[in-house]
Amino acid sequence: MKMEAALNTEDLSQELRLLLAFLEMEEGTEMSFELWELMKDANWHTFIELARHHRVFPTMNRKLQEHRPINVPAFVISMFQRDYYRNTITMLALSGEMERLSSLFENRGIRALFLKGPVIAADLYGDVSLRTSCDLDVLVPLESLQAAEELLVSLGYEKDDYITSVLNDWKWRHHHITFLHPGKGIKVEVHWRLNPSPSKEPGFEELWSRKRQSSLISRPIYYLGREDLFLFLVSHGARHGWSRLRWLLDIKQLMNQRIDWPRLTSHLRKHQMLHIGGQALFLAAKLLAAPLREEMKPLLTSRKAGWLAEDTMFYMRRTVNLHTPPVPKEVERYHKQYLFGLLTTRQKCLYVLSVMHPFYEDTETLPLPQKLHFLYFGLRPFLWLWRKAKGRKEKKRS
User: Fold this and answer.
1) Domain boundary among 194, 224, 254
2) At what angle do helices 274-288 and 226-239 cross, to 10 degrees?
3) Confidence (pTM)
4) Quick check: 202 and 94 in contact, CB under 8 A?
5) 347: burial class by Cβ within 10 Å (0-12, 13-18, 19+)?
6) Is there a contact between 173 and 197 (Cβ–Cβ < 8 Å)?
């Protein structure tokens, strides 16, 4: 299938192009002449750091073990083996905790869908050791959120109370709560939505009706159906600018599964994510040589999909880490513009309206009794201007 837009990868570093060349390779195929050429004079320390940043070192370890290229120094192979073994231990620990939590959720009558982690590794790669995960993500109905929180706290998990709210805006401004077990070092994110507002997405009941049961262990562990998983993974990857190649590798693996593409196309169109699905396919094809088939064509007809794919190269060239503050100002400004560009016209209108909804900062600027919080709707523009003026004055003084 021919695509009109093109990604400029010539200005990427040699080490990143080498990483992409390795990830392009299908299992059982020979290394290309381009790959051999890229290995010449490569900075292997930079290459290792890139593989770690993009969370693809388990895949790299497997490819190096399969081919054992003579151009790759022994210390590189050793480092990837070490990282692979450490990740395997982490994934086994997460698998055990996931099984435990799934059983306890079921005993409490809490329906739960595991979104990522070991179930996705087993489903997409056939082996939990071939994908990295640093936490467990579980989706529960909003009405079960309190029960899930109480359960986790009773198990020794500590809630990260970073969410501040006024007039219950947390229900749509945010989409998950984070819990950390200090003894086990395991983080669990409990979701009540797949994505934060103003996303349009299927509700829990709809997702539950299409759930699958993981074959990872004998005890029932439920996760998203294939089309729902595609929707979730592309919306998550797009929201983070596809700044890690692991997310694209997930899409490439998912593209090789038996997806009902007409159904998926309708699914994405219904939830205003057709352009985001196209962006993911475009990037997977251009950067990782994922094969495109005729049934995928409806996702690639939008020019916006190509433009959004080109926008993500900003993150790729800079090895951007959006998860660890402080984020550089240049990246922060670009990311805000990029996120706004992802939205449809309807979503942009909803976003503008959400800005007019009171924020918790308004209650700190002008404390009012809870029964008078509705007044913040009218006061918000003035309180915002007050904070801006105060901030400028403090900046001048410093």
Assistant:
1) 224
2) 80
3) 0.92
4) no
5) middle
6) yes
